[in-house]
């Protein structure tokens, strides 16, 4: 998976499945249509990976060398941000809502 150019996803459905594969040297993200697990490769909406080989960069030109991917631990927290599309509120005037049906955490090597 490549590095995203703009972070946009082109899917307008209302059911998705997301994976985060987090290892000491790579974090990869993938998003799929529907709730089918395992997902069909054709259902991939977007995906990208960030690894030790990615060039360091930041909005403020801060130095991020070397790239450090912290190892996930039992106390690691999952934070999710919901962003409005270009800052626009929904055209139907309804509140924006995300429903998370489940979250699974599998320790590396315990699969």
Structure report:
Helices cover 0% and strands 21% of the residues. With 111 residues, it is mainly β. The protein has one domain (1-106). Strands 1-2-3 form a 3-stranded antiparallel sheet, with no helix packed on it. The radius of gyration is 16 Å and the shape is globular. The model has no long low-confidence stretch (mean pLDDT 76).
Outline of the structure:
The protein has strands at residues 16-22, 26-33, 44-51.
* Major sheet characteristics: 3 strands, antiparallel
Poorly predicted regions: none
Output mean pLDDT.
Answer: 76
Q: Would you tell me the structural class of the helices and strands?
A: mainly beta
Which sequence of SSEs, written as H and E, runs from N to C?
A: EEE
Q: In DSSP terms, counting alpha (H) and pi (I) runs of 4 or more, how many helices?
A: 0
The general outline is: globular
The whole-angstrom Rg is: 16 Å
Q: Can you give the helix content as a percent range?
A: under 10%
What is the first-to-last residue Cα distance?
Answer: 22 Å
Q: Order of strands side by side in the largest beta sheet?
A: 1-2-3
What is the number of beta strands? Answer: 3
Q: How many structural domains in the coordinates? A: 1
Strand content: 15-25%
Secondary-structure blueprint of this entry?
Blueprint: E1 16-22, E2 26-33, E3 44-51
Antiparallel strand pairs: 1-2, 2-3
């Amino acid at each position: 998976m490549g590095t995203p150019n703009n972070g946009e996803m082109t899917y307008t459905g209302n059911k998705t499945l997301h994976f985060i594969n987090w290892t000491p040297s790579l974090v990869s993200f993938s998003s799929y249509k529907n709730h089918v697990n395992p997902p069909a490769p054709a259902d991939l909406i977007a995906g990208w990976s960030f690894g030790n080989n990615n060039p360091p960069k930041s909005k403020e030109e801060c130095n991020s060398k070397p790239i450090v991917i912290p190892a996930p631990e039992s106390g690691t927290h999952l934070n999710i941000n919901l962003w409005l599309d270009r800052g626009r509120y929904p055209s139907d005037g309804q509140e924006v809502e995300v429903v998370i049906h489940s979250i699974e955490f599998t320790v590396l090597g315990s699969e």
